[in-house]
Amino acid sequence: MSEQSADGSLESVHFQNFRVLRDTVLPLTRFTLIVGPNGSGKSTAIQALEIAGGGNPINRDRAASAGLPENAEIKVTLKWRATKWHAETSLRWGRSGWGGRTLKQTHATPAFTDWPATERALDAKLNSLRSYSLNANAVAEQVGLAPQMELTNTGAGLAGVLDRLRDEAPERFEALNAELARWLPEFDRILFATPERGHRIFLLRTSDEQHAIPADDLSQGTVLSLAMLTLAYLPTPPSIVCLEEPDRGIHPRLLRDVRDALYRLSFPEEYGEDREPVQVIATTHSPYLLDLFRDHPEQIVIAEKTGTEARFERLSDRPDVEEILHDTPLGEAWYSGVLGGVPIER
Amino acid sequence: MIVDVLSESSADEAAIRILVDAVLQLESQAPPGFPRMEFRRGFRGVLKVIPAVLKRAYYHTDADLLVVVLDSNGTPVTEGTSGEKRESRLYRIRQLFDETWKHIKKRNGRRPLQTTVGLAAPALEAWLRCGIDDRVTEAAWIRDLKAGASAPRRIRELKQAVYGTDKPSLDQETSRATEEARRLAEDIGALERSFPIGFGSLARDVRARKDPT
Q1: Is B74 within 8 Å of A326 when comparing Cβ atoms?
Q2: pLDDT for B60-79, tens place per residue?
Q3: Closest listed residue to residue A244, CA positions, set A342, A131, A324, A332
Q4: Cβ B169–A294 below 8 Å, yes or no?
Q5: Domain that includes residue B63, residue range
């Protein structure tokens, strides 16, 4: 599977008349980090992907770019590429509203004949898409146990997910404990408690005094770090993960570990994992996180807003990128504005 | 001997300490205090913290030596006095040291603190390939750079060669970098010969601090 366009992975998303994304293409690789000012379409792109993944479609009025004529179509096209075939998933809003999601094959090599099976696999992949905007309070919440517990969009359910991981994949649970102790040396183990029948909370045990600290007494950065780490250690993570600000609440010194956790999802073969890669689409406002991707400008997308329209541009597509980054950290170059993707000056 | 090491990542710092120890032929100690950098900050990032690191090393530790090592990336690798000199990171860091020393008030009884700079061309991973790939030398890189070679591309190739991936985790990076540094420590002269400007000058400074004449 190549990095630039993994077999059966999303190659790009073309937005037409979708809110602030009037006509622009979001290029994707296995891992993509979008940077840009507020209102530049980062979350809007993720919202469209959530809808593509089976989330509730918004109505036409909310989906339409400002001032869009009533008869104009709103369209979001997800382009899939594999060695033997290309395909498109389209979301449409017509004059009468939400028109649904369709999938069609756009290219196939002569040797490729099994479109029905591929179609089912792509539908399954898209339906497993999950989007996260982690919230520390939600992550720390007590959960009612249920089969097949998953993290919700805010990270709620973590205690149940960890409980399931301990029971179903104990070796992964141990690896997660070891990695947690490396990230946050003040803790050495994840523990559980049952505050009431059928419910769980998680606690972290301190390394020195062996005190168990309940999740809601832990710092926000600690619970958010654990949620990020848990995602990276799931035995069967979602095929596509959208993450709003994975650096949120996490100390800048831990960002290299956050990057490694994200790479563990996207490049499992590099981390000794034997599972399918996860296509990760993340957003950030952190120059420190951005610094860590200096060697991979192909993974960075700059979101730029001009008036009521936003556009995406892959950093490696800029002809001047090597010159600009000559001896300047990537984050600093972005923050200074020379790469674009910063708030406009008043 | 107390040696403080500052570089572009904690993995680089761990490897550099092994190389410096090989030159000193002893096991140096790190000054007490918090670890400084856990992530790559590049040349400018290091440049910004040098005054603070030097002042801390002088005022708040008993460090004998502060070693700074940077990647040259696409900048000239020279100690000479040509027009390239001002662009050389060796020159710029030495200038910064000189400037910072002007603002440091000497303390009676404080052991001398020597500062020295190394320049890995085009990146530390080139040093780590020394003895494995004969094509990776300072002279070869200087020649390639003049012929228009792309530093980011070469660095990516070097990372791939050293770590087996161009996206190593911090653990992988530290483990492989220190493993290669231990190999280089067996014959540190070979590294000095292959990288006479960037590592050779550092080694000379380090020896001078150990055996002042």
Answers
A1: yes
A2: 899 999 999 999 998 999 87
A3: A131
A4: no
A5: 3-210
Q: Which single residue is written with the structure tokens 């690798």?
A: B77
Grade residue A209 by pLDDT with cuts at 50, 70 and 90: very high
Strands B65-71 and B3-6: parallel
A273 CB-side CA count, 13 A: 21
Tokens of B154: 């070469």
The vertex-A167 CA angle with A162 and A273, nearest 5°, equals 75
Cβ atoms of B163 and B78 within 8 Å: the answer is no
Return the amino acid letter for A58. I
Interface of B with A in 12-71 (CB under 8 A): 38-45
Question: Do residues B65 and B113 lie in contact, with contact meaning Cβ atoms separated by under 8 Å?
Answer: yes
B163-177: pLDDT as tens digits: 999 899 989 999 999
Which ipTM score applies to this complex?
0.71
| Inter-chain touch B167–A292, beta carbons under 8 Å | no
pLDDT of A183 higher than 90: yes
Task: Specify the pTM.
Answer: 0.85
Alpha carbons A269 and A257: distance in angstroms, whole number: 17
Q: Which of B96, B153, B162, B167 to mutate to test the interface with A (most CBs of A within 10 A)?
A: B167
CB-neighbour burial class of residue B79 (10 A; exposed 0-12, middle 13-18, buried 19+): middle
DSSP E strands: which ranges in chain B?
A: 3-6, 65-71, 114-120
Question: What is the CATH superfamily name and number for domain A1-129+255-346?
Answer: P-loop containing nucleotide triphosphate hydrolases (3.40.50.300)
Flag the least confident range among A290-294, A320-324, B190-194: A320-324
**Who among B38, B150, B152 is closest to A295 (CB)?**
B152
Q: Yes or no: say if A103 and A38 are a contact pair by the CB < 8 Å rule.
A: no
Nearest Cβ partner for B39 among A256, A263, A296: A256
Q: Which residues of chain B have pLDDT under 50?
A: 37-39
User: Number of structural domains, chain B?
Assistant: 1
